[in-house]
Structures are given as structure tokens and as C-alpha cells.
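C-alpha cells please, single chain.
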Amino acid sequence: MSTPTLNSQLLHPNARPLGGTELNWCRAVVGGTGIAVLAILSSVNPNLQMSRLKNALHKLQTSHPILRSRLHYNPTANIYSFVTTPSPFIQIKHFNHATTSQILQAHQNISPLHLILEHELNENAWTVCSFNTKSDMVFATIYALPDATRWVVVLRLHAAACDRTTAVSLLRELLTLMAVEDEGQKEITINKGEISLAIEDLLPKGMAKKTLWARGMDVLSYSVNSLRLTNLKFKDAKSPRSTQVVRLVVNIDDTEKILSGCKARGIKLCGALGAAALIAAHTSKSRSDHQKKKYGVVTLTDCRSILEPPLSDHHFGFYHSCILNTHTIKGGEKLWEVAKKMYTAFTNYKSSNRHLSDMADLNFLMCRAMENPGLTPSSSLRTCLISVFEDTVVDEWNAQQNQVGVEDYMGCASAHGIAPSIAIFDTIRGGRLDCICVYPSPLHSREQMQELVDNMKCILVDAGDTIVDETEIC
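Here you go.
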């Protein structure tokens, strides 16, 4: 007997049903994880250039259909879908000096850009009730800082429409559009047309195939292993949570040494960052030597280049997958030793396509944990110790950013629902390693995480000063 297709059940002819990963992000965002924020500190008053900024945002929505889509929910068919509108519609919200001052007054020792980023990470427009009508995928806000000489422009997006590659391309395209308009040149053309398919619909044939028995065994294995993982000490597991961030910045000379150390050993920076976090976390728990503990590390990788057809960085949406590895730390290990093991484990999993074949399994377990927080330690919803990205963003900080008044920017996603204890968003910016480290508060305190990040920095810098041993490379 034939069954009606999904399209026949949708509310709107311009709708595209969400894929499994996108649907999981809808569930996660409601709980507080996956609110992507890009905050830009500018010395040029955007209110005086409102027309240019608004035109640039509208061009982005025109070029990228998912940015001019709205999230709809059909309660009858229990289907979430993106409904794409024919015209751009984004409106820019404003906060004056007085309103911004109220947001900043709680923490005088933290930069305004930092505090506004945290404020936006905890502004959740995607609640369950809003799905009964429609929800925008992107919001824009301008904050006037109290000194009256600088402003913060913020874009807040739903993770289903914005992975890290999307956020990076969005920033670059926005600045390019504003600079092009400033010079009176012809506007740039990016990809236009219909919204791209979900990642599950673009996977190469057979790569995600797995027998029912294998899938069941893998789900069981992930579940059992997760119960054995060690977490950072929880400070307050009962109070309502929010997302906070700490920043890790390494100077140019030390950054060059760290990157040279990675290159000499044939690994990427993600291996060094993950290793530094594991060693710092183990030290913070005052483990005695040789007391082994297992830690979970999630590495996110961009799948655009291997999809069918391949997508470019300018195809906006969520096209990352992840690999979960566990690593044992006993104390006393050297950073490069751990980094090499971690990166090798990750690449072995990736070479066997585990980031594709395990996608449905990890989505399933993520959903079960959200529905049953008690399955995680102290109902914390912590899935692992740390998450890192396989590839580091490189930003040379060119004249174009200065041209439109950009002094600084920060970008990341919220993580106070289901997530790791610390998620690292790393960038090499103007030659410096600049990491935005995201964590759930008050499950972890700012002091606790600042100490962890400071220890990570010391471990990385000390390792960068280590002379490469040829036997170690071999």
C-alpha cells in the first residue's frame, strides 16, 4: 500500500523537510545548545551607514536561501521544515547606550564585545511554542557602547542553518559586500537558487551504509563507553544554565612555534588543542601519577567536499559531522605524545568513514540524552570533555576589515544544553592563535574554566618551545 510522500504533507510548496542532523539541532537549540553568534566590534557607526548594512544583509539573504527561510512545524504530520520566502526580510534591532550599559554593568573586568557575545548566546528565539507559527533563522542587532565611539553588530543564527564554515563565510561575505558598496563597485554574486539539501541526502552512496546488527552494536558501545568517561568537576549541577566563554590568545611567536611543532609531526592543530585540554583537565583533578582516567573528545569535520554533489564553503547550512574518540590519561604525559595519538585515532576513524557511517547513531544517542538527562552524569547533559574542529580558520586580517571599521570579532555557538564541557572555536588571526572556549555555567564556573584555559595555554607554549626529536617524528 502506497503512503503519501513527505512533500504532500508539508504546509507550504516552498518547504524542504529537515534532515536528521538538522532536526537534532532543532531539539538541541530549544535546550540551549546551537545558538550561533557572530559579534563584530566596529569603530564606524553602523547607524550612520544603516542603508549599507541593511543592503548587505539583504544581499546575503538573496544569495543564500537558507538565510531567508523560516522554520515551520506541522503538528499534524509532526514535520519540521524550512520554508523559503522569495524576498529578503531581515530587520535590524537597536540597543542604545543606556540599554547596552545595563547588559555590561555586571562584569566590569570583561570586555564589552565578550559580554555582548555571551548575552546573545543566551537569547533563544527558538522555543517550542514559536514553531507553531514560524521562526526566522537569523537575527541582527546593533549595540551602542557607552563610550559612544564604538558599536557591536551581532548576527544570531540557528545551528541548523549555520555551522562554523557558514559563519566564517558569512563574515567574509558581509564585509566584502559592505566594502564593495563603499567603493561603488558592482555587487558580488554568490550562489543563488533553492536551499541545499540536508547532509543525509548528499552522502555518497554506500558510505553511510551499516547493517542493523552493526548499528545496534555501535550504539551500545557508545552508550557503555560514555558511562566510563571522566568529566571536569561540576560546580553547580542544579541551577538553570547559560553559556559563557573564556578566550585563549597566544602571541605570534608562540603560535608559529606551536604550528611548526604540529607540522613537524604531521598533525593538525586540533590534535594539540585537544591534548592540551586533556592534560590540563587531568591536572586540575589532582590525579596522582599513573591513575588512569578516560576522557571523551569530539572532533567536528566539514563534509562539504565529499558530498555528492560537492558543496563549496559558500553553501550555507549545517554540513559538519563528528567523530567521538576516547583517550586515557594517567598523568605525566607530554603534549606532543598525546596530540599524536589523538590525531592518529581521529584520522583512522575518518579514513574508515566513521564520521559518515556513525552519523545516525550519534544523532540517535544525542536525542535520547536530551529526552533523558539522567542518562548523563548528574543530569549534566555532558557528552564528552571537549570538542574541537579538524581544521583551523585562518584569517589574515586584511585591509578590507579595517576599511569597514572592524576592530575585533568573536564567533561561536551556545553549549548549555547537551554539549561537551568545553567547546573550542579556534582561529589563526593575524598570525595569533585566538580561541573562543565555550562552556555551561554554573555547571562550571568562570574561574574554573579560566584556570583550565590558562593551563592549556601554558602547556601549548611550553610544547612549542620543545626541540623536535627526529625519533619522535618517526
